[in-house]
């Protein structure tokens, strides 16, 4: 999962094991909280490409009117 995130340019925050014990999970959530606070937002390519396509379609329709 870390490799896939790195290849896509998405920050990998943390891998949390499946456990019912809150004491075992606390360090993982503390690490996650710190990474979320210090991380920078990433704009995914799919989102920007979708917005560009919508803009182009809207501009084309407006020009035809």
List keywords for this structure.
65 residues; mainly alpha; 68% helix; elongated
Secondary-structure map:
Blueprint: H1 2-8, H2 22-38, H3 45-64
**Nearest-angstrom radius of gyration?**
20 Å
**How many DSSP H or I helices?**
3
Strand-and-helix sequence, N→C? HHH
Number of strands: 0
Count of domains: 1
Which strand-content bin applies to the residues? under 5%
Termini separation comes to: 48 Å
Detailed description of the structure:
This protein has one domain (2-64). The N and C termini lie far apart (48 Å). The mean pLDDT is 81. With 65 residues, the chain is mainly α. It has helices at residues 2-8, 22-38, 45-64.
In short:
By secondary structure, the protein is an all-alpha fold.
């Amino acid at each position: 999962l870390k490799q896939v995130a790195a290849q896509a340019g998405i920050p990998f925050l943390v891998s949390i094991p499946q456990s019912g014990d809150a004491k075992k999970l606390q360090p993982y959530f503390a690490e996650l909280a710190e990474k979320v606070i210090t991380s920078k937002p990433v704009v995914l390519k799919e989102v920007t490409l979708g917005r560009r396509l919508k803009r182009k379609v809207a501009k084309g329709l407006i020009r035809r009117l």
